[in-house]
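Example S7 (structure tokens).
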């Protein structure tokens, strides 16, 4: 499967998960997980969808190792962030324990943006 398609599949999975949390909040009349919901949908669904579009439109160059590293970094950071936020706002674990995890997840998601930027800049198709 190409990276644009892989990103599309992951994006839609995040949409299902994020909307699931939204429906849970609506049904339970408890908005405690709204930050989790917002980030699963915006970092997960929207950002992954944009990465898929970038792959489809601009990254026709072959950079397989960088593309794989960027893909793993983005999803590892995103999933860690979402699980951390779910546990935090469900009061399963205290902020003191989750803070380093969320900090690492944030840096990892940001590294994913940097790696995508590197690929876009390195791509010869930019001038086309
Ligand atoms: C099945 C679809 C969805 C349901 C049932 C749903 C439900 C909710 C609920 C119950 C809240 C909390 C509102 C409150 O604080 O009282 C919320 C907040 C939010 N939702 Fe959704 N949502 C859905 C889809 C989406 C989508 C597709 C996005 C973005 C792509 C989104 C972005 C947000 C954001 C950013 C907030 C936080 C808003 C704020 O902090 O004021 N939601 N949603
Ligand atoms: C490294 C990645 C990110 C980190 C560390 C981060 C962190 C945060 C924090 C700390 C808040 C405040 C939460 C609170 O009110 O308690 C927040 C809110 C918010 N962020 Fe992010 N964010 C990130 C990425 C993004 C991205 C990529 C988007 C949109 C594309 C986004 C959209 C929002 C929105 C809409 C809110 C308000 C949500 C709400 O009140 O429920 N964030 N973010």
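Recovered sequence:
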């Amino acid at each position: 499967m190409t990276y644009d398609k892989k990103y599309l599949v992951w994006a839609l999975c995040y949409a299902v998960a994020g909307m699931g949390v939204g429906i849970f909040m609506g049904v339970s009349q408890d908005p405690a997980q709204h930050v989790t919901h917002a980030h699963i949908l915006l970092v997960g669904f929207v950002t992954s969808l944009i990465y898929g579009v970038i792959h489809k439109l601009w990254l026709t160059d072959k950079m397989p190792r960088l593309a794989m590293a960027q893909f793993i970094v983005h999803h590892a950071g995103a999933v860690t962030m979402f699980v951390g936020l779910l546990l935090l706002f469900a009061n399963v674990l205290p902020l003191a324990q989750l803070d380093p995890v969320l900090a690492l997840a944030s840096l990892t998601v940001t590294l994913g943006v940097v790696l995508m930027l590197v690929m876009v800049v390195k791509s010869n198709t930019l001038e086309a």
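Notes on this example. The first helix runs from residue 3 to 28.
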